Amino acid sequence: MSAADRIASWPVLRQLRNGDPLGLGPAAQSPRSASLVPRTESADKVVDSICPYCAVGCGQKVYVTDGRVTQIEGDPDSPISRGRLCPKGSASLSLVTNPGREQKVKYRRPYGTEWEELSLVEAMDRIADRVIATRAATWQERDHAEDLTLKRTLGFASLGGATLDNEENYLMKKLYTALGAVQVENQARI
Amino acid sequence: MQNADCILIQGSNMAECHPVGFQWVMEAKARGATVIHVDPRFTRTSALADVHVPIRAGSDIAFLGGIVNHILANGREFREYVAAYTNASTLVGDDFADTEDLDGVFSGFDPDTRTYDPATWQYAGMAAATAAAGHREQAMGEAHGHGSKHQGAGRPDTDPSLQDPRCVFQILKRHFSRYTPEMVEEICGVPPELFTRVAEALCANSGRERTSAFVYSVGWTQHTVGVQYIRTASIIQLLLGNIGRPGGGILALRGHASIQGSTDIPTLFNILPGYLPMVPARGPTDLAGYIDAYNAPAGFWGHMDSYLVSMLKAWWGDAATADNDYCFDYLPRIDADHSHYRSTLDMADGNVKGFFVVGENPVVGSANGRLQCQALANLDWLVVRDLVEIETAAFWYDSPEIDSGEARTADIGTEVFFLPAAAHTEKDGSFTNTQRLLQWHHAAVEPPDDCRSDLWFYFHLGRIIKDKLAASTEARDRPVLDLTWDYPTHGPLAEPDAEAVLREISGWGPDGAVDGYTDLRADGSTACGCWIYSGSYAGETNQAARRRPGSEQSWVAPEWGWAWPANRRMLYNRASADPEGRPWSTRKAYVWWDEDSGRWSGEDVADFAATMRPDYRPPEGASAEDALRGDEPFVMQTDGRGWLFAPTGLVDGPLPAHYEPHESPFTNSLYGQESNPARLVYSRRGNRSNPGGGRPGADAFPYVISTYRLTEHHTAGGMSRFLAYLCELQPAMFCEVSPELAAERGLVNGGWATVVTARSAIEARVLVTRRMPALRVQGRIVHQVGLPYHWGRRGLSPGDSANDLAGVVLDPNVHIQESKAASCDIRPGRRPQGPDLTRLVDEYLGRAGITGEGP
């Protein structure tokens, strides 16, 4: 740093020159804080998203560095939220990165006392088997007493959808209906 | 909402539960609007309102009915709007008897089955009209997407002078005539001056030049008369001319990112996508019969055939042909209530073997947590998909019933699969927000490890099941094997292409993606998964992903996302113009008839046939929208009118009436009938009810209880109680009580209290606050206890669940539980642990004399 720079960086001088006589604004900035840049500056990409909490539907910008989400901010372009997020929306970064998030399949056998490990492939295969077997065992083709067509199963039920995407709800309803499952419900009922 | 001149928020704490949306209330206020908050608690919404009205939980119909009476008794209705656009002038059949005549029940009630036959509620000379949102099949006791066909042809008899005693306007006047300010005070605990101030604010801010808006949330829905709460608001808004106009309307604030979407594309038992009814077993047996039963003679429900056939083509593709009724027979039939709580009871009884729980946490979020755990424990298998190990996944080793010894892990035979889910940043897809707006979120990163989207889960589950059944010759497997399921996948995880799914939802025809539902045909040439979403992929473009900055558009922002239907931002907006098609006023102009272009024009896509002139009169034999007149804006109704009186569509009455909550410390001041006679009660061990007002044992539960949300937590906690920041901000379960109640029961601020109902007892930290005022009802003081419902046993901030206290008692229209108003007792100190908890609840049951099977 040159002598001139050193003098120019003298706090009293900065307070006077920067219109910050009380030294509570920019004059208080240290070289370290002056050199800090937000992690959003260095992101590899910024992805458009929508807040996953309530149904206001605030716009979000998801910042990604090295394949990891590093920050989530409100989207100022959204005509709904105009860049704002509430405490929950602001916590979405920890929603997607918090260490308490489960990342492995867990399996509890009937009457078991512990969780066990299970591969995703095996879990999918067993769940498909359970659906097929339950459906076969509980299939109702007709109500003979009243002579009614039923073509359904009351053997299994489903709850959920309000936190999911439209496309996910669509595949659920389509698959369940083709399987003849009718006890399909979600939070809208609650 | 920013255009409103008065906003009444009731049954909602918008500032805390939908804070970012609340900025538009503040915009309206900054422009001079009057903001009113009616709520048992003084919250941050109240703090920012001009007026806060403390009210007894569960008495809102009396309050709103008082406003209806104020409007009618003082001639404050918007007469031209009411006469032209509502069914005020329509004559109702001679057989109709009102609650005024029958002391709290309408004609058609069968006390043995506790159900109504709506035959006597119909318009004079007509069998049944069709409701926009649903006709309730009595057999199902549930809303169907749409009505029965037997709406006689022709037009109902009317009296345009509104003087005939049988006309809706006069029926309405008589029905609400006893809802006086004094009665409002008696029932709600609201002083007459305060009530009149609210009623006058609404009247003064409605009419040609001004509009008022209503806002509600689950504070209105979670009641045994919840649907009728909203009906009462609809009556007020129709009388004041506030529907279909800027700054008007009734805004339902929904609490989940896509709870609107999961209703439109329903993971619900009684409807198919786009509010088409599921096929009732005791109903039509083929496609023609279905169309015949549900096609409306007038309005946009007159294209039922195009909507359903296009859906069948989307689902069963080439297998669906005209010769086989487009696979209509592949649809399963329903013949009873298959809703969430009915299914829960069936599970508890061992009648359901398997259960998928996907992004939901019923042990905490649904009424009666103990019943929920019993249900899970009686399954053969359970699949839970979530971001974290929620209470519903852990019920078999961590629950109040395991603690109390009522259940033992080693006795629970349920096989449990927990599958970790992908977060919103890890998948493509659209949410539909509370104003029907589809907004796309893009995947930013790959999900970690075993985490997968629900799109992945259901696509691959379907694929595996189809593979395993490939050789099957069983007839029941044909719908599975013929199901179109060839979505392209991408990436190392073989993630299905969400845009391909949206394209199927939106629909296609011979020339590619359709522009909207008016392109759909009943001849098998078009496919469309959900007719109301048709056009969301118009032009082979993902319309939901549009993000033209709000600053570069009009205030309506039509190029941000896509709103169903047809990118309309406001429904029934034809009503923003007068019968001749001119705006009611320059100040409230929105859409209008443009004679030069021969089209409806304005800020928004008109919710009307685009080129139908205001003076159009349907010729003989016209159908669908062409059978309505050019000055009838409610295009989903067969009569084109807004319904002050609902001849069909509801199972508990054509008009709202005040009923006490199922559990109330008070008797009904208006009628001999205490509570909604058609409410659904499931009395059984573990789901007993506190005795109602005036009955023996009612004094064991002298206080009113209500539940609510906090800014820093989300519903049943799966997305908030596991996050450090949010738990730091709201670290513990608590209850709110008034200083007077604290003194009466020896409760200390910051100390512990135990809250008891016939279901269970929970403990909570005590917050003594004047924000929870005591009220004077029926001449005596009543205290209310407020409980947030987010807590459960797991996560960073464990606490007892408020919903353990709630009983399964339901609104008969929509099967939603009454958790916003019930009775309770509260006592100082922590609750007993282990078996002593059960003993405490049993002691209360004994004290209240609750032993039998009855309600």
Describe the structure in your own words.
The complex is a heterodimer of chains A (190) and B (855). Chain A is an alpha+beta fold and 190 residues long. Chain A has helices at 3-8, 11-17, 31-35, 87-90, 92-97, 120-138, 166-179, and strands at 45-50, 59-65, 68-74, 106-108, 116-117, 139-143, 148-159, 181-185. Chain B is α/β, with parallel strands linked by helices. Chain B has a six-stranded mixed β-sheet. A five-stranded parallel β-sheet of chain B has the order 3-2-1-8-9. The model of chain B is unreliable at 134-152 (pLDDT under 50). Chains A and B meet through strand 1, strand 2, strand 3, helix 4 and helix 5 of A and helix 12, strand 13, helix 15, strand 14 and strand 15 of B. Strand 7 (148-159) of chain A pairs parallel with strand 14 (354-358) of chain B.
- The portion of residues forming beta strands of chain B comes to 5-15%
Strand order of the biggest β-sheet of chain A: 1-2-3
Largest sheet of chain A: 3 strands, antiparallel
What sort of overall outline of chain A do the alpha carbons produce when their principal axes are compared?
A: elongated
Write down the oligomeric state: heterodimer
**Distance between the terminal alpha carbons of chain A, to the nearest Å?**
66 Å
Distance between the termini of chain B: 43 Å
Give the uncertain stretches of chain A in residue-range form: none
Q: In percent, how helical is the residue content of chain B?
A: 10-25%
Number of alpha- plus pi-helical segments of chain A: 7
